[in-house]
Amino acid sequence: MQISKSPLGIDYFGRGHWLTAIQARVSFQARKRMFVIFKNFAGLTDGRTLLDVGATPDIERLDSNCMIPWFSEIGLRVSLYSPEDINHLKDVFKFAAILPASGFGNPIPAEARSFDWVSSAAVLEHVGSRDKQREFIRDSARVGNGLFITTPNRLHWLEFHTKLPLIHWLPSNLHRQLLGRLGLKLWANEKHLNLLTRRDLKALATTALGDEFEWHVRTIWTLGMPSNLILLARRKTQSIAR
Fold first, then answer.
1. What pLDDT is recorded for position 237?
2. Backbone phi, then psi, for 139, in 5-degree steps?
3. From CA 144, how far away is CA 222, in angstroms rounded?
């Protein structure tokens, strides 16, 4: 089975671009390093539960859902959720439970504090406005006692979705206008791409997590600059899911 686009017909990966194959390899190595940071932060993982939010329907790219088997290898009991249809992933990740899709913009269909960890890789930049990004973090925190959320760093010199350098450093409105003129209307739309800086992510975490969590933001470097932001959080008074 090949899943090349989201059910909405959106090609999030830019498959026709000549840099895409290289990007997938670079992304895979970056995610390896991000996973190590999570593993060290999480501590004891054997028998704990983890919900991966935003698992992609794609099963072609090297970096697609690559952390999911790594989570299982360190003893986590893994569940997957996406607003898109990912039922075919049952055949790919036989160890994982799959939550029913509830549609874009709707709450995660899980009870409060029902998972030890909630992970989400490269999803936050695709959920829409800052308010929607804040709500995404808040809802992830609602269902989990710990968070591992990654997103690209807007201040990296290369924007990995458009494969264009530097122009994303422009004010957001000018950046989107320029993308539209270049024919990249998908990425010019805030609901499909809304990049964050470290300061942006910290501001969102401050209001979304309040006093219930202790948290910090880490970075990893790729191609000479900090390329990815990692929000790590742990509920101060944990009710461990079983």
1. 78
2. -70, -35
3. 29
DSSP classification of residue 126: G
CA nearest to 124, candidates 85, 160, 152, 162: 152
How many CA atoms lie within 13 Å of 65's alpha carbon, on the beta-carbon side?
25
Distance CA 80, CA 36 (A): 20
SS3 at position 165: strand
- What's the pLDDT score for residue 81? 98
Vertex 179: Cα angle to 177 and 183 (nearest 5): 115
Kindly report, residue by residue over 62-78, the tens digit of the pLDDT. Answer: 999 999 999 999 999 99
Question: Which secondary structure element, helix H or strand E, spans residue 22, and what is its range?
Answer: helix 20-42
**Angstrom distance (rounded) from CA 220 to CA 234:** 20
Distances (CA, A) of 37 to 64, 87, 229: 19, 29, 11
- Cα–Cα distances (Å) from 178 to 15, 84, 125, 170, in that order, read 21, 29, 19, 10
The pLDDT of residue 4 is above 60: no
Q: How far is the C-alpha of 201 from the C-alpha of 151, rounded, in Å?
A: 9
pLDDT in tens, 80-112: 999 999 999 999 999 999 999 988 889 999 999
Q: Which residues contact 123 (CB under 8 A, 6 or more apart)?
A: 53, 54, 136, 149, 151
Q: How far apart are CA 80 and CA 89, in angstroms?
A: 9
Kindly state the percentage of the chain with pLDDT values over 90.
86
Q: Among 40-54, 105-119, 225-239, where is mean pLDDT lowest?
A: 225-239
Three-state DSSP state, 76: coil
